[in-house]
Fold this sequence. Notes:
- The protein has 655 residues and is an alpha+beta fold.
- The protein is built from 16 helices and 32 strands.
- The longest helix is centred in the N-terminal third of the chain and has 36 residues, at 18-53.
- It holds the Pfam family GTP_EFTU.
Amino acid sequence: xxxxxxxxxxxxxxxxxxxxxxxxxxxxxxxxxxxxxxxxxxxxxxxxxxxxxxxxxxxxxxxxxxxxxxxxxxxxxxxxxxxxxxxxxxxxxxxxxxxxxxxxxxxxxxxxxxxxxxxxxxxxxxxxxxxxxxxxxxxxxxxxxxxxxxxxxxxxxxxxxxxxxxxxxxxxxxxxxxxxxxxxxxxxxxxxxxxxxxxxxxxxxxxxxxxxxxxxxxxxxxxxxxxxxxxxxxxxxxxxxxxxxxxxxxxxxxxxxxxxxxxxxxxxxxxxxxxxxxxxxxxxxxxxxxxxxxxxxxxxxxxxxxxxxxxxxxxxxxxxxxxxxxxxxxxxxxxxxxxxxxxxxxxxxxxxxxxxxxxxxxxxxxxxxxxxxxxxxxxxxxxxxxxxxxxxxxxxxxxxxxxxxxxxxxxxxxxxxxxxxxxxxxxxxxxxxxxxxxxxxxxxxxxxxxxxxxxxxxxxxxxxxxxxxxxxxxxxxxxxxxxxxxxxxxxxxxxxxxxxxxxxxxxxxxxxxxxxxxxxxxxxxxxxxxxxxxxxxxxxxxxxxxxxxxxxxxxxxxxxxxxxxxxxxxxxxxxxxxxxxxxxxxxxxxxxxxxxxxxxxxxxxxxxxxxxxxxxxxxxxxxxxxxxxxxxxxxxxxxxxxxxxxxxxxxxxxx
Length: 655
């Protein structure tokens, strides 16, 4: 371009008049700009075609799975730097963890994707990293992300060794027949013992110690060996570019300017900007507006081909039209759909209410927007006489609940009241005029909807398989805690000479509130805990009602196991006695189950000293005044309503 300008300036302008010289210079500048634009466009097209030209044999789709704080995000940062996706910088920390809650807690909550270019053996490889959460509470994120992978990196801390979530994540990947690359991280630490941890992997997972890679993600040691293992050990995706277009939708989120963005894995064929595509579940058609890959920032492309993972924008206005696990295909050319993901049933429920009913609309808007980004949350409207209008939300676990409410406050500045979490119970009803036939199943998460015991044939409660890894010196205390929570031991394995892995069947209702904190306390923070749902078992449940002067308060009721009813009842009435403010009348606080009072506390009334004006005389005068006062209190008690301030319910119900 510079040569063209100089040539025209020297050879043409000398022979023109001043007026024509000026006019010619303008034309030369226009020509140069057009040439520059065309040059840059060609260069851009050349860059974009790099991804499409990479054959399927040189594509690898993988994920990183690990226990919390074992360095998964740090390894992802080093992989991005080594492959040139981001510039090497000391400030590159948790690049793929974009949410504030992820950075504060040091955990991954939302799955992210990044496409990496890596040169191996003189050939360019496309490595698609799908970063996944590690906690069981976000198993829906993990499950749908692993559906687009052919292998995983199992990352283990060389200092702490195998933890409970390591075991759960291994079997999740193993169950999907994925190739597993074992990697030991943090070998630079003073107390790191890679040989000991390698033996743990061999004992628990039958992994050959010679195949284990040893790295330090923080210092960047061994990162190239990890990339080479991804290329050499993992298979390419089973894709075919000659077949009609077919893609799997495994994630989506809402953009306020572009609508719903769909993250897809292309199984067959290719897709271009301007194509008309259809979603199998909704049967709706859309025109593809933009295509891009994540590196990890969006990079626009003109087309995507089989084997790749990319982002599709087609002006979809409602996230309800994007069903996770749906199949995308070219309009008019039908394909065999993928088997859709099994809907995840929420395990933990909690009521959420605005601090003030004037904030109801803002809180509702915040919950709806956040639920678009987290399809595992279920929402139903709920009304409480004490707290007003609110919602009952279902979550996959306690951590899921905590993260959701934290995001509400941080991302939308929405203050809320969160009630104590509860779980969903299943009940088989007897044959009645209402049910028409016996065996009808009813799911109850709110004590208000607990049926009459005479109508119930059998009760069921949700169970989980809890995995605990602890130093052997805390074994007695940990086992006592599990047995206290009605746990049944399934197995016990010595990982090495110092640590033991225990597995217990535990009722979910016993672990959702304080089990993890208690476990950390009795083990000085060394024990780790993870769980997975295993279904329902038959049990005997009762509804624990709280009475104030004989009047039941529905907001304070709860569903408990019959063996724990008396303990919980005594604890509840004692707490209410401390929280409920004293009034002019005496308040009897009672806990009742099936008509039987299990615990009682009495809150004394305020009492005026009516005998203060007496300075002597007959005692009958004193007794008369006290009798009049007692009669007045009795009359007041028969007509008075006990009004509990809203703050009392907040203190009692707050998690």
